[in-house]
Please model this.
Amino acid sequence: MTLENTKNETFREFLERLRQEHELVDIKQAIDIRHIATLVDQSDKALLFHNVIGYKIPVVSGIFRNQQRTALSMSCSNFSEIEARLRQAIDRPIPPEYLKSAPGKEVIILGDDVDLFSLPVPICSISDGGPMITAGVVMARDPEYGINAGVYRFLVKERNITGIDINTPNNLRLFAQRALESGRSCPISISIGTHPFDIMGAGYRAPLGVDEMGLAGGLRGAPSRLAPCETVDVPCVADAEFVLEAEILPTGWVWPEGRFGEFTRLMGGLHWNPLVKIKAITHRRDPIYYSLHMPWENTWVGAPTRYAAIRAALKNAGVQVKDINVTIGGCAMWHAVISVKKQAGEGKNALLAALSVMDLKHAVVVDDDIDVFDPIDVEWAIATRVQGDRDVFVIPGARAKPLDPSLPVVPPGTVPTGAKVGIDATIGEGIPRERFERIAYAYAESAKLNEYLAGKGDRLPAIVNAPSDQVSQLAQKIHALIEKTPGYYSEIAEQFSDYDFQSIARALGKLHAEEKLWQDPRGRLCIRGSAFAAKPPMKS
Model:
């Protein structure tokens, strides 16, 4: 499926595409909503629950729980393409199209009729504070800064009251703080069941003044469609399955919110946050409720935004990047491994640039011969190329993410600070690169085990177990060869492949016994006393 074919795709059309790709399973028997989270956790497919006991609305979850489905959601053939698509969207955003009304507003529920308990909002982890709305594209308006979009969670507390987690410094927290200081509510819309283009665009941490829905349009290659709300002066996603129209109340950060199973794969602590009043719910006649499953859906949909931000920072620093891995072990948030085509000093420059991005905590920079997606290769680079006093540095007192469980406890409302660590695992300046020549096995291109297991045998050389006179003749031939050009043992053996290996070894042994055989500084065989020959160290 190409981007051209999906640029106007709705959320439910996307679900149908997942179904056609055998990446979504329909479960039509009765399911207790309390079982949904654990069933999704056990599944390698997205799950659509058609018959949730006590509710009239089906629930879908697990859309982004692996690389393949995340790539499908962006109409990409593989996960790495998403970064390029996002980079293009950042460079060439497409402003949203504003409709007079949303096609999803087939049902409008206002005021006292609002009942969040009628929505099938699952509870996920054992220690969660309650049912949590997890997949809302939130749009807010500030009198000075205009519209901002993001993805936030809402803890269902009453029929029309939720909590919201805006504990971490971000644009929505700024909007709510400014509204609080002015003694007013902050209007928001919460669009649930939107296309992944809108979720990823809204989830990108853009600077103030950047239209995240323009990024969503750039991702899809066509304008995202927005529409006005019924009760608040904020747009919503026109094609959403549900829209909750709401206000962040000017309560301040004084109401308990959480706990919740976070992107860290750990249970988050109790947070202090404002309350949100839901003023209206609009939805389709036959809506599908989307519950984003933590932590993996958050991880996979968020990772590409980190790739794009890190690459932009490195580009601004003038560093030539080969590859980036925002690791899943680092929760797609805190760890990056970056390979560079290095010039002198650029390992450190790359680290400084990368560590300036978002909440990145630890970064490793390696040479372009290291596979950043192979943890053994990366650890090998650290083991063989790093000296701690030269190549590891710590930046203390940097802004940190409150959900980092290793941080000390700080008073509510305080932005925590922590350390950032850079590891320069590139080959240091002045160190010979030949020290890092990897083992390579002779005949790896031609000797294939599966062929031998299938019955292949090697041909016999023309001369096997050569008599002493032929060994002497071979020694003379080898002498003539390496007198002109030094060669590794295996190269010489290949040059004289008409002889079996034992005969070649005997010929070279003869040259050594005659004290004619020597080695050059790279270990290649040459003639003793020649211009190629390595010089022994001076005696002290």
About this structure: The chain has a mean pLDDT of 91. The domain at 449-527 is CATH 1.10.10 (Arc Repressor Mutant, subunit A).
